[in-house]
Amino acid sequence: MEVLYSSTRNSDKKITASQAILKGLADDGGLFVPDHIPALTCSMKELADRSYQDTAYEVMKLFLTDFTEEELKRCIERAYDSKFDTDVIAPIVEAEDTYYLELFHGATIAFKDMALSILPHLMITSAKKNHVENEIVILTATSGDTGKAALAGFTDVEGTKIIVFYPKNGVSPIQEKQMVTQKGKNTFVVGIHGNFDDAQTGVKKLFNDRELAQEMAEAGLQFSSANSINIGRLVPQIVYYVYAYAKLLKEDKLSEGERMNVVVPTGNFGNILAAFYAKQMGVPIGKLICASNENKVLYDFFTTGRYDRNREFVLTSSPSMDILISSNLERLLYRIAGEDAGTNAALMESLAKTGVYEITDQMREQLADFYGNYASEKETSDRIRSMYENTGYVLDTHTAVASAVYQKYVEDTKDETVTVIASTASPFKFTRNVMNAIDEKYDAMSDFELIDELSAISSVDVPAAVAQLKTAPVVHDHVCDKTEMKAIVKHFLGVDA
Question: What share of the chain is helix, strand, coil (3-state, %, to 5)?
């Protein structure tokens, strides 16, 4: 059955998957959502013997229904190839009776690679399908990982340019260096004086700027997004939850139909929303455990039903989660509001005007499958150290937040359901925080000495993505105020004359 897409703020207009991928964000500022969640057509037992690539096709074909089999398989083949350092793409590691789904084996050692390796291919295919002649300008805000993954995906892709904004003092040194050393004639990277929410809000304003859109159209350009607001980012993320269940089934860690809990460290809510969609498709997922850091706006929301971004913004050791406006939560709100775009639009208007919205008791009842909690900086650090001391396995700061929250969940509920924790980044991306957590003696070392030491104590080779940074020259040194984002975009694109 064909799946069409509409805005979370106006469900009247339906468009195809390829059109939604090209637009990224709806004209009214809403996010594109499918008109129904399709059910898996393969049983989990059938999927147990499939490769990651085959599983990706079985999931994505159900959402991207205007892609031909040949088109979709070609995109998958080009995405999940030797750029990943493991043949299985997303290995599962057991530690302390919990399963860590390692999503960081791609080119930029973070989970964003899982979707951003395929998005450029989906986008170029979508452009051809819709006879788009404009050059596509990918405009993206990043809290650390999306930026580099998007840059790596779109570098020198014909018919595209990519502009990435990041908070100048809000990402790790490795994250920043990964971005500012990115080569490619079509790449632009800008640090802004502000936090991630400022960058994300600025990007959304640019998407909704009709005057700018007109100027760009006259220059043969059009915007699209590589953030998880793009449905072409979200759909590929569903795949690894389906894959994880199937592999645990194959290894007899689960029996067919037995439930699996999922823990996701989250800021923008896209990764855990993908798990929710996998559950809706028929994957036997029990609890969706939403792990926050000290920017615990999502924990407060799940606890009270009230979303309030009016609070101090905390810079933490898990910067990809330092977010107070969780954009993808809008897709869940739309769902629990009975797909009532009017209700959803009113909530988003309240958020924009006051920074607050509150859902009804009826909506809250539909969140029973979610559990929210958070980990403090100390709890995160303690978890990295205890995991290493007990098992020798090294967690990055984001995965440590999830692991610490999972401990709280078990303590609160005594639930011993088989659990998968989404391990969203390599510890090599956050070496100083990780190594200081293990032992404060490491603080005297330089960043690159720490990388070698982490490799030694974990018996893991330094990822190529990090090793090459030692000698990589900086090619992007642009910094601007959050109020100057439009001007710098116009300058990059040559439409400021």
Answer: 50, 15, 35
d(CA 452, CA 434): 13
Model confidence pLDDT, tens digit, residues 411-444 = 999 999 999 999 999 999 999 999 999 999 999 9
Q: Is 463 exposed, middle or buried (0-12, 13-18, 19+ CB in 10 A)?
A: buried
Distance of CA 33 to the CA centre of its chain: 16
Checking DSSP bridges between strand 306-308 and strand 356-358, what pairing results, if any?
antiparallel
DSSP state of 319: G
DSSP symbol at 312: -
Mean pLDDT of the chain, nearest integer: 95
Mapped onto helix, strand or coil, the DSSP state of residue 360 is: coil
- DSSP letters along 282-297, please? T--EEEEEEEE-S--H
Q: Which amino acid is present at 426?
A: S
**CB–CB of 343/315 below 8 Å?**
no
Residue 51 in contact with residue 21, Cβ under 8 Å? no
Active site residue 429: no
DSSP for 53-95, please give it. Answer: HHHHHHHHHHH-TTS-HHHHHHHHHHHSSTTSSSTTSS-EEEE
Would the CA dihedral through 443, 446, 450, 452 be positive or negative?
A: negative
- What are φ and ψ of residue 10, in 5° steps? -165, 105
Q: How buried is 69 (Cβ within 10 angstroms: 0-12 exposed, 13-18 middle, 19+ buried)?
A: exposed
Task: Locate all alpha helices (DSSP H) within 414-484, ordered by sequence.
Answer: 431-438, 447-458, 464-467
Q: Apex CA 106: angle with CA 101 and CA 112, to 5°?
A: 75
Tell which residue, 96, 44, 4, has the closest CA to residue 258.
Answer: 44
Tokens standing for residue 401: 């937040």
Q: What is the pLDDT of residue 447?
A: 86
Q: Where are the alpha helices (DSSP H) in 141-282?
A: 145-154, 173-180, 196-207, 210-218, 231-250, 270-281
Which of 13, 14, 23, 112 is the catalytic position?
112
CA dihedral for 404, 372, 62, 226, sign (positive or negative): negative
pTM beyond 0.90, yes or no: yes
Q: Is the pLDDT of residue 394 over 90?
A: yes
CA dist., res. 120 & res. 75, Å (int): 9
Question: Which tokens belong to 157?
Answer: 């892709």
313: left (phi over 0), alpha (psi -120 to 50) or beta: beta
Residues 6+ apart with CB under 8 A from 459: 392
Other CB atoms within a 10 A radius of the CB of residue 11 amount to 18
Tokens read off for 171: 């990402």
Distances in whole angstroms, Cα of residue 413 to Cα of each of 64, 373, 399, 450 = 38, 13, 21, 38
| One-letter amino acid for residue 16 of the chain | T
- Please report the pLDDT score of residue 202 as a whole number: 95
